[in-house]
Structure formats: structure tokens, C-alpha cells
Amino acid sequence: MKCVEEDSGMRYLVGLDEECNMTVVDAMKDFLVYAWNKRQGVNMSGNKLPVCPPQLRAVQHYLKLGADYESREPVITYWARLYSLQMALKIDKKSPEARALLAGLMDWLENFKKTNTDNEAISSDVAGQALLENEANKLFMFADTNDRASVFNKNTVKSFYTAGVLLDVCEVFGELSEEVLAQRKYAKWKATYIHNCLKQGQTPTPGPIGGDEDDQLTGDNPSVAVPPDHDSSRLPSAAGSMPPHMPPVEASSPAHDPQPGSGVSSCPVKQADIKTARKYCKWAESALDYEDITTAVENLTKALDLLKTQS
User: Residue 198 in 3-state DSSP?
Assistant: First the structure.
């Protein structure tokens, strides 16, 4: 890595790897972009980042996510910007505009990590992933509760959408499990579906259409159009802002309660209900990793209630 200038202790990097084979002209172009950004008031070592160039448009969703969380949960901002950096490096690391953004991200990440060395959610991938998954689960349950209660609005769309984007960022920790992949696909599909229905003046169908969410999902990363006038500050981010209970997840109750101590189920447990119960348990485990006891108890209770209706 090469250094052109020291600015408030933060390095402006112009050499990202040896594959770039940078020339003096390339370095000068990068420095001119850096100087222009600085002249326009973009502080490379502060909170602002250089403008995202058009060729890195795919990264914009994650940069926006990081900006939305910067004041209320900056750890999420850290992981979102690290994921943005990794994505951007795969798309364009040679153009001056891309290099300006990459350098800004590197400086911000380096500075944030240095000033948050005691934060376990930064130093530990396990704790960081637990925080992101827990936030995604809160948003997902909030949106799913509204959806099944036929509360269709921009906040429901944004909550589904943000849950999906947060689970995208979880790829920074490694390959996602099948359950997380399914949850992400459903969240993004539901956000797209409700948004399109509202845009066309139609009433969305609550819950999975046809009762099986897997049949409604096509593709691993569906495009979601978010209304440009949505106020992201209205997003729920704490357990206290969520509805206290989630409607039943399509569990069929037996006609008669089982006799106490019989130990025999009145009807077989559906595979869909087992899958849902496992999902609740996974969310509870994720909440415990971040010491969120309230959310953990809520999810374990839902799993037990769901299985009890089948016993």
C-alpha cells in the first residue's frame, strides 16, 4: 500500500493492491479527486464520505443503511461500510471516483475501529453478527406482524426491506445459513410485493400467498424499489417499539385438547410449524448472544406456544 498524504493522522491510500499497477499519472488523478472532495467540504477522516459513483450503484443501498444507523447504532454502520468496501473492491477499484470512495471508507473504518477497541461487537465477529441478526429479526417480526394484521404502509415496506439488507451485510461474516437465506428472500420479496400493490392501488394479501412463502420466492437477491419519500427515521429499532405479540403463524389447532400426561399427540406436527419453531429458537439464541433477554424470551415462548398447539 502506498501513502500520498497524512491528514489528521488518517492515511489517504492510493495503492489498493499490486494488481492495479498504478502509474504516477494514476496516483496524481487520485490525489486530484481527493483534493476536490476536500475542497467541496468532504472530510475524509470525518463522518462524510465521498459521493458514490454511478458504477458503484449496487453499493448505495448499504451506504444508505450505514448512514441511517450512524447516530443510533454506529456498530451497524461499521459492518455496513465494511461490506460496502468489500463489494466496491469487486466492482471497480481503478477509476479515480471509485478510489476516492474506497479511500474514504478505509479511513473511516480504520478510525472507527481504533476508537472502539473495547466494543466486542467490533472486535468479535460472533458478537457483531449477533447484533446484526438481532436487529434484522426485530424489524422482520415488526413488519410480519403488521403484514399479517393487514397493516400495509411504507413503514411495513421499509422494515421488511431493511431486514433484508441487514442480512445481506451478514455475508461479511461468512456464508449465510439456509434459514437466514430464506428469511432474507422472504423479507425482500414481501417488501417488493407490498410496495408494488400500494403503488398500483391494490390491497396486498397478508402473509405468504398460498400459505407457503418458499413458493413465492424467485432469485436470491430480488430488487426492491423503496419509495423515495420514505422517512427512514421512523424505522423501529428497539424492542419497545415493536408490537408485544406476533399473530399465530398459520398453525392449525387440534379440535380437542390432549389429556394431561397422555404423552400422545392428537395430530402430527406439521413440518412448516417445526421449521417456524426452529426459526424462533434461532432468533432467541441470536438475542442471547447480545444479552437481549426480552427478545429471547419472546421468541422461545412463541416456539413453545406453536408446538403446544400441535401436542
Answer: helix
Angle between helices 271-289 and 293-308 (to 10 degrees): 160
- The single residue listed with the C-alpha cell 487520485 is 30
Dist. CA 149–CA 147, nearest whole Å = 5
> Measured between alpha carbons, how far is residue 58 from residues 30, 85, 136 in Å?
22, 11, 20
102 Cβ partners below 8 Å, 6+ apart?
13, 16, 85, 88, 89, 93
H/E element, 11: strand 10-13
Residue 213 and residue 179 in contact, taking contact as beta carbons nearer than 8 Å: no
Cell 467541496 -> residue:
40
First and final C-alpha spacing in the chain: 62
Which helix (DSSP H) or strand (DSSP E) does residue 66 occupy? helix 60-69
Partner residues linked to 3 by β-bridges: 13
pLDDT exceeds 60 at position 237: no
Any idea what DSSP says for residue 116? T
Q: What is the pLDDT of residues 172-213, one digit of tens each?
A: 999 999 999 999 999 999 999 999 999 999 999 998 875 444
The helix (H) or strand (E) run that includes residue 3 is: strand 3-7
The reply to whether the predicted model has a pTM over 0.70 is no
Cell of 67: 448512514
Burial of 84 (0-12, 13-18, 19+ CB in 10 A): buried
8 Å CB contact between 280 and 300: yes
| Pairing mode of beta strands 3-7, 10-13 | antiparallel
CA–CA distance, 188 with 126 (Å, rounded to integer): 24
Contact between residue 85 and residue 109 where contact means Cβ atoms under 8 Å apart = yes
Q: Give the three cell numbers for residue 212.
A: 407457503
